[in-house]
Design goal:
- The complex is a heterodimer.
- Chain A starts with a strand and ends with a strand.
- In chain A, the strands form 2 sheets. In chain A, strands 1, 2, 5, 6, 7, 8 and 9 form a 7-stranded mixed sheet that branches. Chain A has a two-stranded antiparallel ribbon with strand order 3-4.
- Chain A is mainly beta.
- Chain A has 1 helix and 9 strands, in the order βββββαββββ.
- Chain B has 2 helices and 10 strands.
- In chain B, a hairpin with a 3-residue loop joins strand 9 and strand 10.
- The chains are: A mainly beta, B mainly beta.
């Protein structure tokens, strides 16, 4: 059962820094000469995303508790709208969220996260 | 081990680009297990002949089949989730292992299989469970109840 994304946090991802990496499913041979052989290894790959949202002082506890308690330190999955299809999709955080000041400073911070989509 | 390879597998083996994953099915059996443990080294579950094999990360390297090398190999299972180790720790005698290889597009057709395997030893840490598996152990199997001891056969000593 996937957890629900906190209503207090932004539910739209920033464009800046966004990246979507389609998970590899094949291996290639390394040859001195000749075309590499390619073989598919898995039926589905694990897609990964680099995403970010903005965070205010008051939202810090919501983010912290979501990561530490709700997601159990990244063990549990959560639901979020797929950035391309818009469909509610299960994600899992690869590493703890990183919080840093936004480029212009002030009272907003930038939360960068690495997510992955478990294959189904 | 059956060496009769299907035309589909041969086509995949010889192709420049093979688009059909060659998957390993592992079945662990023991009378103390509630049910057999069925695993596949894939990212999603695979249903083969009505049984669901759970997607589970593991890797293996088979022994050299030259008639001289010891017919023993190991499988390294991921242990981060502790899924396997709970069952393995409950038993003290060898666990039966069956290994089958399939093409993902033909999950009900076993391309190669090896049965009657035994897990001889298990070592584990927080990251992985390493199981040593013996294909057969006939060199350590007693042939008769007689032993060549000085008491039974004093003439040969």
């Amino acid at each position: 059962m996937a957890e629900t994304w906190p209503a207090a946090l932004e539910d739209k991802l920033n464009v800046a820094g966004f990246q979507y990496q389609i998970g590899p499913t094949a291996i290639r041979s390394e040859n001195d000469v000749g075309l590499a052989k390619v073989r598919r290894r898995f039926t589905k790959g694990v897609d990964t995303l680099s995403v970010s949202i903005n965070l205010t002082y008051t939202e810090f506890n919501d983010l912290y508790n979501f990561w530490d308690v709700t997601l159990n330190g990244g063990v549990n999955r959560f639901e979020f709208d797929h950035p391309f299809t818009g469909a509610l999709t299960e994600f899992r955080m690869v590493s703890p969220p990183r919080i840093g000041p936004r480029a212009r400073g002030g009272r907003e911070f930038l939360v960068t996260m690495e997510w992955e989509i478990p294959p189904v | 081990m059956s060496l009769t390879l299907s035309p589909e597998l041969l086509a995949q083996l010889f192709a420049q680009e093979s688009d059909d994953p060659f998957l390993l099915l592992v079945t662990l059996s023991h009378p103390d297990f509630v049910d057999d443990i069925r695993l596949v080294n894939n990212t999603v579950n695979i249903v083969s002949r009505g049984d669901t094999f759970l997607a589970f990360p593991f890797r293996t390297r088979f022994p050299v089949d030259d008639g001289q090398t010891k017919r023993e190999f190991s499988i390294e299972f991921d242990n981060v989730s502790l899924d396997l180790i709970e069952g393995i720790r409950t038993v003290t005698d060898p666990i039966d292992v069956k290994i089958e290889m399939i093409l993902a597009s033909l999950p009900d057709e076993v391309q190669m299989s090896q049965e009657e395997l035994k897990i001889r030893q298990v070592v584990y840490d927080q990251n992985r469970v390493t199981a040593t598996i013996a294909l057969d152990d006939f060199l350590n199997t007693e042939m008769t109840s007689e032993k060549y001891t000085p008491t039974n056969f004093p003439g040969i000593f």
